[in-house]
Amino acid sequence: MGLKAYMNDIVEAVVTTAKGMRITARYGVDPKEEVTLQYPEERWEIPEGYRGFLDNDVKKCTACTMCVKVCPIDCISLESVRGADKKMVLASYDINIGRCMYCGLCVEVCPPKSLKHTSGYEMASVDRGELILHFIAEDAAEIKARVARQVAEAAAKEAEAKAAAEVVKPADLSSVAAKAPVVEPKAAKEEEKKPE
Hints:
This protein is an alpha+beta fold. It has helices spanning 3-29, 66-70, 105-109, 140-179, 186-193, and strands at 54-56, 76-82, 88-96, 115-117, 132-134.
């Protein structure tokens, strides 16, 4: 390597550094060209269609389990029981956002549209248990026990109604039988008509 190549390398380094410093100086001096955002106090405006954390409106949720079935990584779990009115009642609904990849398949397949993406994106934690979102505060066992009591009460009321209906039926049948005309069989009529 000769002296000429060495000097060319030095000149190229100085020119390249000068270009970079010119761009840096322009961003540093021009107030319109602010790039740095003072993060905790200022936040970027979230674009429309952003897929942040998931949120489920449990009042609209029908416990159809479509979101659980379509989730490719099984980060959604739910438990439900059939209530007295034959509809499913949510006992628990949890989403592990530490495993979620925010693909949006669960949101698209939700029939009542109770599952939605929010604009949330901050959930720093040192414990993985904090990354599991619980949408039902009440314990699942308590909900199941309460629904089981309601189903038992409904079944008891239905049994009482059937028993009351059966008690009424025999009395109705005897009054209907008293009012009905007596029909004699043809053979008995023919025997009466035959002379001896």
